Amino acid sequence: MKKVFKFYMSIFLFIFFFPIKSTAITPQCDLFVEKLISSPNEHEWEKVVGDVYLNDFGFILQYDWNNSDKKTFYRKNAKGNYIVGKIYDLDLAKNLKSGDSIIKLNGKKFVNSEEQKNILKNDKKVKVEFFNLNKGNFILDLARNERNLSDAYLQIEDISINSIDQKFGTYQVRFIYNFSKLYNESYKNFNDVANDTIIFDDNGTTNIEVCIFTEKEFVRSKITDPGFQIKILNVAKKDNDLFNIHYKLTPYSKKFGNDFNALYLQKNIEGQFDIKNKFNLRAFPFDKQILSLELIDGRYNLDTRNIFVSERTHIFLNEYFKKNEILGWDILSYKLSSFQYQNPFNMKNDFSDGLKLDLTVERKHGYYVFKVIVPIVLILLICWGSVWINPKEIESRLTITIVCLLSLIAYNFVIDKEMPKLEYLTIMDWIILISYIYATIPNFLSIASFHLMKTNLPLCKKVENLSKKYGILSYILIIFGIVGLNANLNPEHSSAIISWMIGK
Length: 504
Hints:
Blueprint: H1 2-17, E1 21-23, H2 27-38, E2 52-56, E3 59-61, E4 63-66, E5 71-74, E6 82-87, H3 90-93, E7 101-105, E8 108-109, H4 114-122, E9 125-132, E10 136-143, E11 145-165, E12 170-183, H5 188-194, E13 199-202, E14 205-213, H6 215-221, E15 230-232, E16 235-238, E17 244-252, E18 262-276, E19 288-297, E20 305-309, H7 311-323, E21 329-342, E22 351-363, H8 366-385, H9 394-416, H10 427-455, H11 457-489, H12 496-501
Parallel strand pairs: 1-14, 11-20
Antiparallel strand pairs: 2-11, 3-6, 4-5, 6-7, 7-8, 7-9, 9-10, 11-12, 12-18, 13-14, 14-17, 15-19, 16-18, 17-18, 19-22, 21-22
Helix pairs in contact: 8-9, 8-10, 8-11, 9-10, 10-11
């Protein structure tokens, strides 16, 4: 992984510092394309070639990125078990899923010790005990196999969440990413075509030409698209005016002073999308949400092509995490995970590779606390302040309580504008509902006290005193109880401040 990172960094620095002519379809690039077209068919640049060699049991462990030391490390679940990452064996994918945890290896607890590492590295057969949330513990007998995969090498260049619309269950994202492929010296005939076309002599000086192609120009070249049919899942809307694809081919030559001969191809994609997303709003407005962006291979099975992520992607995502640029939200963390996608229209029920980016965000609840909840509490204080008015003044008491009730209804309309019609109640819904009840109680108390004052004065005084002592106090205690109960029932969706209040 470190070698791959250094290589791609060298490419980046080379492109940045060396003065390379770069235009759209230039005469040199056009000549290069014409030579590709006129060449005999069945060349390697037209094929999906398995250039990643693997000798293992059909899966790898899921890993994360440590930004402090710029290294990867294997992910563990809450119980300390390692997690299954990519799977590239079709038969194995029918029984095992990315995200399953590894419990035992050959009857021993899998703790990634040297002994366990050696088993995975050297043994030809292993007995592995896995755990899946749906089917519990299960054991698979696995055999080592050699295989070659084509790698769709993904690099995220930029990502920005423009807005989050929980009412319609979407969020808007601007996404810039690319897929790349390196045609090294083993692709001899491809590099030969580059010579004297995009690698050329000009008055005794070797020059290179970076070619930038539109989609139409690239298709004409017959070069295999490095990200062909890899697409974003669950797109609700795509802004066609802001969507752009172009291809960039950079030649490297020892004649030009490089250490190697190669052609480096990038498919650059930029677009703005509305992505469908599931929101759990039970803890609203003290909620956390997970914004998921899923890429799936819509063309090849997972035993043919997998989506790999560049280390540069992890570095960028950490930088984006620090910027915290989502209006009204705080970005808490990100996570990249593999998954298997099964096309419902595929008659063979085969699986393709998928990559999921999860951004965990927390709502900035200050607006709702100070502009909604605090005013509601103040309205209730005014409403219950009516119990200090003489029961004889029933008109005054009823006027206050009814006006307060109408004010609460108005606040409910404000919240409903930005919320979907849910089959469950959020924290805010519970607060408003309890507030309705507590705004209604003083109305009945006023009427009851007015009649009791004439028929049973001692009872009237007792009711009034109890109302003054416990009315507002019980309301506040119930509100805190609702917040605490919801946070306990949905801890993963509750904000940090609520979790802190209940000792989570």
